[in-house]
Amino acid sequence: MTQPTARSGDRFLAAQPRGTGVQSANLADLLERVLDKGIVIAGDIRVNLLDIELLTIKIRLLIASVDRAREMGIDWWEHDPSLSSGKRGLALENRRLRERIGELEAGRTGRRTQSPDADYEDDETPPARPRRTRSTP
Amino acid sequence: MTTPDLTWLYAVARDVEDGALDGLTGVADEPLRTLTVTGLALVVGSVPRSGFDERALQRRLADLQWLEAAVRAHHRVIAELARTGRTLPLRFATLYRDDRGAAAFLRGAGPRLRAALERVADRAEWGVKAYLAGAAPAPADIAAPADRPGTAYLLRRRAQRDALAQRFDEAMAAAREIHAALAALADRAAEHPLQSAEASGRAEPMLLNGAYLVDRERVADFGAAATELGRRFSGVRLELTGPWPPYSFADIGPEVPETVDPAGTGTAETAEADVEADVEAEAGFGADAGPDAATGAAPRIKPPEPRSPEQPAAAEGG
Predict the structure, then answer these.
(1) Choosing among B64, B71, B74, B122, which should be mutated to test the A contact, i.e. which has the most A CBs within 10 A?
(2) Are B127 and B240 found together in one domain?
(3) Number of CB pairs < 8 Å for A and B?
(4) At what angle do helices B54-61 and B64-84 cross, to 10 degrees?
(5) Nearest to B250 among A38, A49, A130 (CB)
(6) Tens digits of pLDDT across chain A (137 residues)
(7) Residue A122: inside a domain, yes or no?
(8) Are residues B127 and B230 in the same domain?
(9) Number of domains in chain A
(10) Do B82 and A34 form a contact (C-beta atoms < 8 A)?
(11) Do A47 and B203 count as a contact with CB atoms less than 8 A apart?
(12) Are residues B167 and B217 in the same domain?
């Protein structure tokens, strides 16, 4: 599960100051920067973004399907100990994530949302469009 | 040239090298263009109005497959630009109706953009996260009467809980010290909200989610310091990400420019300001007044409940 011997500094020094990208970046790191940081100006088109933690968890759930992730060329989960421990770990992870989504959505909307259907627990392909993603901040 | 497209903004750069954008495409798979106004380059793409007006975009943001791919596309453009020169990322989903609006932004914010570009020159953002780590301490030797197993159990359990709470407090204090030490080596530092285990994908509680703007010359020192800190504090595990484009340090201050035209002859928004004095406003940026400043202070996690080895099943009940 964990990487007890991994010392940050070793990996740190191995990283190049000018690389082609961020190898060790996980989805949460990426979303919290791209969706929330950078120069913030109004522009002409106003949209509301979901809570970033909620988005992160939902996307993690979405691409927790190994096949689909491979198809898209995404491999961050291969370095993610909690997801790479096999199919069983994935199912557990999925359940935990869905519970967390339910909690977050309940917190945001002030009402208890139903936990998403349990019927794709063993499906290879989660639904393409999650049902409850709109929010009114 | 007017097209029915909207203009999606990616980044502001000092200048964009020839060919730097070749082969890159944006969030709508569109080729990228550069708008240049008074020596600043704005990298943009034309995206179809049908998919990116307010209604359509709001709907698409709920499509996680689209969103994830678009976030990566937005980041890819910015990362590529940051690799070759000083770059300020724009937040995802910054759109103007046309290039004129985008160019007006560039003109209006010119001095602030220049100052911000100066601040990130030859620097990159590095992320350092700290997680609770280390094996739980062995249950202390409790002087409990062997003939009273119930009392002994309760004493052991309390000692275990106290030890865990203490370990967490120590790790939290270590994380504060680590952040201070790294911030001292950085030009600027910021803290992102701590990620939950569900978002980070790690079971251990996160104690620090720091971002540091580090001069290229000091990256080695920064790395050595992180290594040293990781060794010194065995109760935390450090994780580094980077180099990032300076997402967390791209704030350009308030929209109203500090330097108001005293004569009031024209606002920054008018389209004719082609000749603009090269005002290098030394905007003050000592204090981290950005949105980060408020987020880091209060850790919002609690130490996990200890699980008694005697009762492993009960803890999983939920």
Answers:
(1) B64
(2) yes
(3) 217
(4) 100
(5) A38
(6) 333 333 333 333 333 333 333 334 588 999 999 999 999 998 999 888 878 888 888 888 776 655 455 555 555 545 554 444 455 566 677 777 788 888 887 776 544 333 333 333 333 333 343 333 333 33
(7) no
(8) yes
(9) 1
(10) no
(11) no
(12) yes
